[in-house]
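Key result, reporting period 2: structure in, sequence out.
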């Protein structure tokens, strides 16, 4: 067994089934960098994905901070209902593969991190296939293993506000 297959098996992730689907070139525009959001760089190449790793009770991913409110760094209204959502509620956006063509809309997931857990409602997609345009607030495509969470989810995990933004977590369907 080669190192990649061994790593994939031990992590419970079927990496051989989730390869990059392409690249897109960055363009710049009016990017809201609230919550330390990354803005696209003109001419930079960004990897895109149409899949995400398999979800299990030990799916280790990256939790990021996102505003789901109008005018926030989340960009357009949420994909599940074309509405904006209060950052005072524990809501999330999942990478494209996990979002699964809206199949997880309004379902709850359990997020485990910082020695605590929170249940959050899926309201949006953290798009891994496109980005660097007005609809995506001129932010790059999401990696295929991100859960974008509201401030309420971060609070519930007991993370100090100065540390909000990037946290290794596990998640599962509730």
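The corresponding designed sequence is given below.
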């Amino acid at each position: 067994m080669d190192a990649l297959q061994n790593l994939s098996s031990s992590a419970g992730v079927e990496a051989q089934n989730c390869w990059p689907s392409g690249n897109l070139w960055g363009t710049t525009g009016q990017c809201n960098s609230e919550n330390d959001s990354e803005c696209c760089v003109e001419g930079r190449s960004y990897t895109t994905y149409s899949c995400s790793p398999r979800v299990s009770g030990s799916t280790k991913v990256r939790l990021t901070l996102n505003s789901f409110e109008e005018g926030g760094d989340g960009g357009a209204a949420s994909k599940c209902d074309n509405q904006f959502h209060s950052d005072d509620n524990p809501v999330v956006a999942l990478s494209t593969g996990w979002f699964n063509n809206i199949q997880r809309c309004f379902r709850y997931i359990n997020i485990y991190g910082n020695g605590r857990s929170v249940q959050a409602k899926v309201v949006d997609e953290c798009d891994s296939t496109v980005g660097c345009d007005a609809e995506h607030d001129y932010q790059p495509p999401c990696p295929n293993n991100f859960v974008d969470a509201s401030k309420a989810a971060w609070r519930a995990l007991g993370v100090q506000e100065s540390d909000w933004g990037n946290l290794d977590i596990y998640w599962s369907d509730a």
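Strands lie at 22-25, 45-48, 59-65, 91-95, 108-113, 116-126, 146-149, 166-173. The radius of gyration is 16 Å. This case is discussed further under Risks and Mitigation.
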